[in-house]
Write a structure and sequence with these properties.
single chain, 164 residues, alpha/beta, Rossmann fold, 7-stranded mixed beta sheet, 5 helices, 30% helix, globular
């Protein structure tokens, strides 16, 4: 059993709706330049979480998995974009560098599924979210902040999501 820092959030979601609601709460706190790195097996709830995240971020667009197109963009009325990248099919760091991630960060929020495949190409400060399949309707989410922005974000998220 891993030992988590005080800034980590370890949560067992008991339904698709609960996973989506956690995404809504985190998305409501997101701001331009943020990076969210999602990892976990197929079917662990990453895209479901992003659907909630986009809603909380106030996107009006329908969220779908970008597995075959690599990146989807969702907009909101203020012109900011949510860039939803699926790195599953990226085979090298050179391929990741060709995506011009800095441009995405300048125009909004970047949320990356399968982030571990391109970790070295991403900024050093980010929020890591690991999804583990526990059972048919249960997923374990572990959120680990990397950098002061994300440590503060986790404090705010805990208050918003759990009242603490």
């Amino acid at each position: 059993m891993p030992i988590f820092s005080a800034n980590c959030v370890d949560f067992v979601s008991r339904s698709v709706e609960q996973t989506r609601r956690l995404g809504v709460r985190l998305g409501s706190l997101a701001r331009a330049g943020d990076v969210y790195c999602l990892s976990g097996d197929l079917g662990a709830g990453k895209t479901t979480f992003v659907q909630g995240f986009a809603k909380g971020w106030d996107s009006r667009d329908q969220v779908s998995s970008p597995t075959f197109v690599l990146i989807n963009q969702y907009s909101r009325t203020d012109g900011n974009l949510l860039h939803h990248l699926d790195a599953y099919r990226i085979d090298s760091l050179e391929e990741a560098a060709d995506l011009d991630l800095d441009e995405y960060l300048a125009s909004g929020v970047l949320i990356v599924e399968w982030a571990e495949r391109i970790r070295a190409a991403l900024p050093e400060d980010y929020l890591e979210i690991n999804f583990t399949w526990v059972g048919e309707d249960q997923r374990n989410l572990v959120m680990t902040p990397h950098g002061s922005r994300y440590e503060k974000l986790m404090e705010d998220f805990k208050r918003l999501a759990f009242g603490g």
